[in-house]
């Protein structure tokens, strides 16, 4: 049986197109013509020996094989880029200060730090997992080199939008929902301490829908919020990022709650031109986050 060896350039085009939701944009980013991109995608399907796309309305969606291919493509590209960085930047040294939301502390942070440390063992990293307001304050005052934060519309001097994540109502993983609109009772809300961007979004959505609510639990930490939500003290609002197994996302219509908007995610930099170590870490953060974010609607424009 002939061994299949996938072309990394083809896999990068494939992964970039999915990330951007548009292969024309992928062609522009990668400096290729749209016809060249089409030829690469055709080559990928030929190498895979099975369709990786299916028609979905006016666009394309991934088949089950395509979803599998995407996961492996991202892993292969990450390993390739990590190897290239290790070989070409073996003497990279310095100190990088990274800040990020609690939501990413247990998911994104270990992956990014592991990849970075393997490639650049001489670089010292200081990571701070704090709330949004503190992240913005620290990066603007120069106490952090990089900060990954939810977007509240505040723009720092050097920032880049990475993507959008759906906000969701969250309840306990087991048992019946703790509340339903038909009960006529105020909705019990579990929340982080103010100021909290997602707490504001929750109360605004409830107020606009004419649904009364009460603060049933307030926590200074995300761990406390998960514990209260899992215990059934109330519903909370977060994103699908970093959800523990003891809680789950809710379908709003099932309990009479309003739908929620998406939440932007922004990478803030202290300086326009980062030092090499910080620039490399910023690149890894962007790659990992974009790979973890859900597609907006599962459709890809060819």
UniProtKB/TrEMBL annotation:
GO MF, one term, reads: DNA binding
| Record keywords, A-Z | DNA-binding, Transcription, Transcription regulation
**InterPro entries, sorted:** LTTR, LysR_HTH_N, LysR_subst-bd, WH-like_DNA-bd_sf, WH_DNA-bd_sf
Return the Pfam families for the record.
HTH_1, LysR_substrate
Q: Which domain of life is it from?
A: Bacteria
- KW rRNA-binding (keyword) present: no
PROSITE patterns with a match to the protein in the record: HTH_LYSR
Which SUPFAM superfamilies is this protein grouped with? Periplasmic binding protein-like II (SSF53850), Winged helix' DNA-binding domain (SSF46785)
Could you tell me which residue ranges the HTH lysR-type domain spans? Answer: 6-63
Q: What is stated as this protein's family in its record?
A: Belongs to the LysR transcriptional regulatory family.
Q: What is this protein called?
A: LysR family transcriptional regulator
